[in-house]
User: Fold this.
Amino acid sequence: MGSKSGDGPAWRAARRCDGGECVEIGTLGEFVLVRSTGDADGIYVTLGREEWREFVAGIKDGDFDGL
Assistant:
């Protein structure tokens, strides 16, 4: 996974990120964190592992295609 400093999360950007503002995913213990690379020091969303699985399943099922 991406870089890790100290006890902070290990972050990685989406594979298709071209250096612009992309989504990064991090892990910290039992949590999955989501943030923007354009605001790496800003806020992030924290999801439990089951919430993350449900979110990814929703993406794959097209639940967010209309947004």
